[in-house]
Write a structure and sequence with these properties.
Layout lengths: L1 H24 L26 H9 L2 H7 L5 H8 L9 H28 L5 H29 L3 H23 L9 H22 L5
InterPro entries: Invertase/methylesterase_inhib (IPR035513), PCW_Enzyme_Inhibitor (IPR052421), Pectinesterase_inhib_dom (IPR006501)
Keywords: Disulfide bond, Signal
Organism: Glycine soja
């Protein structure tokens, strides 16, 4: 009988201790898990800065120039070209004429340099051949740009686009003449690139006007 009472007492004691242990382990820990210094997240640097185009537009303070030049071959060059000549209410046709005239001036400059090189007795035979081709191509370029100016002046932007688009073909023919001349590099690559960008600007603007994107 005493033995049975002892076993019951023992079981009650064991049960009480088990409950106590369970209640202790069930309490949530309040210890904060801290990252080691090497594991702490670092802030990524935020890219900042204003593009040349945005900076130029900020100076000019003309949202119309932004709209007009966006989507062109070289928006910065477009804005630099037309901004100094625009006064009063923004006129997209006037802005286009300004860009075309800038292209004409650059083409005339290149044509003049070609003539000087052709007249230079130190110019090599291979270079003379390439320059001769370029001279004829730039004659065509000048004629087409001048015709484009007249068409735009008459508000005929559609025909102006078709007329002006051949400018790039003539420019490429000049480039090919140098590529096909062994040992001869084009002597005016930067001017040639600028002419391409100005021409691309004009074509993009004319396309935008025809499709009512820049009116």
């Amino acid at each position: 009988m005493d033995h049975l009472r002892f076993n019951k007492t023992t079981l009650v004691l064991i049960g009480t201790l088990s409950c106590l242990l369970l209640s202790i382990t069930a309490v949530p820990s309040t210890r904060v898990l801290e990252l080691a210094p090497s594991e702490a997240p670092t802030a990524e640097p935020i890219a900042s800065g204003i593009s040349l185009f945005d900076n130029l537009l900020a100076k000019e303070s003309s949202p119309m120039i932004l709209k007009f030049c966006t989507g062109t071959e070289n928006p910065t060059l477009c804005a630099e070209t037309i901004a100094p000549y625009l006064t009063g209410t923004f006129d997209p046709i006037q802005a286009l004429e300004t860009e075309i005239n800038a292209t004409l001036e650059k083409a005339e400059e290149i044509a003049g340099n070609i003539k000087k090189m052709l007249d230079d007795p130190t110019t090599t035979k291979n270079a003379m051949d390439a320059l001769g081709i370029c001279q004829s191509q730039y004659d065509n370029i000048l004629d087409n740009i001048k015709e484009t100016v007249e068409l735009v002046g008459n508000q005929n932007v559609v025909d102006a686009w078709y007329r002006f688009s051949s400018v790039l073909s003539y420019k490429e023919a000049c480039e090919d003449a140098f590529k096909e001349s062994p040992g001869v590099d084009m002597p005016f690559p930067e001017d040639n690139t600028k002419l391409f960008q100005l021409s691309g600007n004009c074509l993009a603007v004319m396309d935008g006007i025809v499709n009512n994107h820049k009116m």
